[in-house]
Amino acid sequence: MTFEVEQYLPDALLERIRGRAADVDRDNAFPHDDLDDLRAAGYLSILVPADRGGSGLSLAQASQLQQRLATASPATALAVNMHLVWTGVAKVLRDRGIDDLAFVQTGAAAGEIFAFGISEAGNDLVLFGSDTDAAPRADGSYAFTGTKIFTSLAPVWTQLGLHGLDTASPDGPRMVYGFVPRSDAVLTRDDWDTVGMRGTQSRTTELHGAVAPADRVVRRIAPGPSPDPIVFGIFSVFEILLASVYTGVARRALDLAVEAARSRRSKRTGAAYSQDADIRWRIADIVLAYDALGPQLAALADDVDAQTDHGGRWFSLLSGLKHRATTTAKRIVDEAILVAGGSAYFADHELGRLYRDVLAGLFHPSDPESAHAAAATAWLGPLEN
Ligand SMILES: Cc1cc2nc3c(=O)[nH]c(=O)nc-3n(C[C@H](O)[C@H](O)[C@H](O)COP(=O)(O)OP(=O)(O)OC[C@H]3O[C@@H](n4cnc5c(N)ncnc54)[C@H](O)[C@@H]3O)c2cc1C
């Protein structure tokens, strides 16, 4: 069957989401209406296989859709991204014969919203360590105590996928990955007031012994770099879908720059700025940068879908993709702003909003330091002590 992005994200839906984005940003609100519309359109289960009630799309197809969604509202796309990451991890594992996250797939198809509770203050080990305590209980469940930061979808999630460190078990320490339902043991602070990506409402989450039932404890692995499929699953799907969101931001900035170049007129020459040699060069520069993003996303997403084995190169390939997409998107928004001129400096101008939103791309893992470290290690070998 041919894949058409319009089938999953029709133009009318996209325009509704675009029409709300400025209000969501100004009000620092969660885009509940966007989520309702996306849920009704089946968007939350695009990566769930058909035999479990979803659309059965590939990661490459989801990447195209997330690029498209981000052109309408970067914050909505980034928030939904976190849910799509878990459904994508479930798919990557199942494709490789590990069906530990089947409940994520059936849950997403039934309307559950999965949030991504990985980030912790100052934890630059990210997946390889955690300051959250994962306390084993007699029935195989785990109680998680700690603080997660930047939990997108904070007002709406029903299941939080997270990690913590089990130091109590005889085979410990072990990194434990599990899913806790929303309960009294989870406290969400109302502390999201950022310069951009305001609609993600990525608030701080306090865990006070929040319990992941035994059948929701999906993995126990040694801390540190690990070949475990859950690490590859999270890393690959996260980096690819995240890069997709910021590539969509870049695309929107390009479209707005073209619009501005056509509509602004020079008093000096009387001609539209689209006829100005310097502005043409700027637009061309954006196009030359933007055109590289889609193909690299498609190629790596296809490789994950096809289970191509890049061995130890995977990490630098994926972190490099995320790094290039987010830094290029930032540069493209900068250029687009210069094309649009001073009006873009107003807080309610869409390019002004994209300028604030695109900044967030630099902070997500893999940050520039770890992307460079992975690339250097891939080509020079590890640092010698
Ligand atoms: C828009 C957006 C959405 C995101 N959504 C998610 C999500 O859904 N799930 C998720 O897991 N992550 C999410 N992230 C988190 C992101 O991926 C990074 O983990 C986050 O940006 C922190 O980056 P950092 O390591 O540079 O920050 P850090 O340097 O770790 O700083 C983050 C916070 O921790 C404090 N801090 C830093 N060091 C310490 C310390 N030693 N002791 C105490 N406090 C300290 C800082 O003051 C700051 O408030 C999101 C980020 C953004 C920008």
Question: What proportion of the residues is helical, as a percent range?
Answer: 40-55%
Would you give the CATH topology of the largest domain? Butyryl-CoA Dehydrogenase, subunit A, domain 3
| Shape-level CATH architecture of the largest domain | Up-down Bundle
Largest sheet geometry: 4 strands, mixed
Class inferred from helices and paired strands: alpha+beta
Shape: globular
Identify the strand order in the major beta sheet: 1-4-5-8
| Low-pLDDT regions | none
Order of helices and strands: HHHHHHEEEEEEEEHHHHHH
Beta-strand content estimate: 5-15%
Number of domains: 3
Question: Whole-number average pLDDT?
Answer: 97
The CATH class of the largest domain turns out to be Mainly Alpha
Task: Describe the protein.
The protein has helices at 5-8, 11-27, 32-40, 59-72, 74-95, 102-109, 229-263, 277-290, 293-305, 314-340, 350-359, 368-380, and strands spanning 114-117, 133-136, 142-151, 159-166, 174-181, 186-188, 203-212, 217-221. It has a 4-stranded mixed sheet, covered by helices on one side. The protein has 3 domains: 5-112, Butyryl-Coa Dehydrogenase, subunit A, domain 1, CATH 1.10.540.10; 115-221, Butyryl-CoA Dehydrogenase, subunit A, domain 2, CATH 2.40.110; 229-380, Butyryl-CoA Dehydrogenase, subunit A, domain 3. Helix 7 packs antiparallel against helix 9. The chain is built from 12 helices and 8 strands. It is an alpha+beta fold. The protein is globular and about 80 Å long. The chain binds flavin-adenine dinucleotide. Flavin-adenine dinucleotide is lined by residues 78, 82, 116-119, 121-122, 124, 149-152, 197, 200, 202, 360, 363-365, 367.
